[in-house]
């Protein structure tokens, strides 16, 4: 009989954003952003302090990112999905800080425009937003498109990276 895998989680609020991070012994499994209602069943995961070694410094690195001190993350990842999804998430990590690409461009990199829907779905299922920067993918017409953590968070992340200006969203 296979022994159950041990999972861990911790929470932290950084710059007004609530993070709940799940990890394994290998790395970051899942990051929930502003999803306060996510319930953990007793025994499903062990709650740790944010600075515990099994949290892999993820909260420290997120704080550095939000303070403009970090542009790339080097936390270990233990992302789970189909091979195609993992390939998309690997490609997303190549998008430089402060840059965006379109879903269409990403689909072409993944094998052709016909992959657009699958690429969009992989983006939506990204288990580690911000670390795997799916917020840097926008519509071909320059509009933001969707974001699993909400468009307000996507706007704030792109603004933080200097890609958007607050003036774009002010009422005249």
Number of strands: 6
Beta-strand fraction estimate: 15-25%
Overall shape: it is globular
User: Roughly how many Å apart are the termini?
Assistant: 65 Å
Biggest sheet, in brief? 4 strands, mixed
Strand order of the largest sheet: 3-2-1-4
Fold topology:
Blueprint: E1 8-14, E2 17-23, E3 28-33, E4 46-47, H1 58-66, H2 83-92, E5 101-102, H3 103-109, H4 116-124, E6 137-138, H5 151-160
Parallel strand pairs: 1-4, 5-6
Antiparallel strand pairs: 1-2, 2-3
Short description:
The protein is of the alpha/beta class. The protein is 26% helix and 15% strand. The chain is globular.
What does this structure look like?
- The chain is α/β, with parallel strands linked by helices and 172 residues long.
- Helix content is 26%, strand content 15%.
- It is built from 5 helices and 6 strands.
- A 4-stranded mixed beta sheet has the order 3-2-1-4, covered by helices on one side.
- Strand 1 and strand 2 (17-23) form a beta hairpin.
- The radius of gyration is 17 Å and the shape is globular.
- The model is unreliable at 166-172 (pLDDT under 50).
Distinctive features:
4-stranded mixed β-sheet, 172 residues, two-stranded parallel sheet, globular
């Amino acid at each position: 009989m296979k022994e159950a895998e041990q999972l861990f989680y911790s929470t932290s609020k950084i710059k007004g954003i609530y993070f709940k991070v799940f990890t394994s012994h290998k790395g970051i499994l899942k990051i929930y952003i502003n999803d306060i209602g996510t319930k953990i069943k007793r025994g499903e995961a062990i709650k740790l302090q944010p600075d515990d070694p099994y949290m892999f410094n993820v909260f420290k690195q997120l704080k550095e990112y939000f303070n403009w001190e970090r542009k790339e993350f080097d936390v270990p990842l233990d992302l789970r999905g189909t091979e195609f999804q993992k390939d998309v998430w690997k490609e997303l990590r190549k998008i430089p800080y402060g840059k965006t690409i379109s879903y269409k461009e990403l689909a072409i990199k993944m094998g052709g425009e016909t992959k657009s829907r699958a690429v969009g779905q992989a983006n939506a299922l990204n288990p580690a937003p911000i670390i795997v920067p799916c917020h840097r993918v926008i519509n071909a017409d320059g509009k933001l498109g969707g974001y699993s953590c909400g468009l307000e968070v996507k706007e704030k992340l792109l603004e933080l990276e200097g890609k958007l200006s607050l003036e774009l969203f002010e009422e005249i």
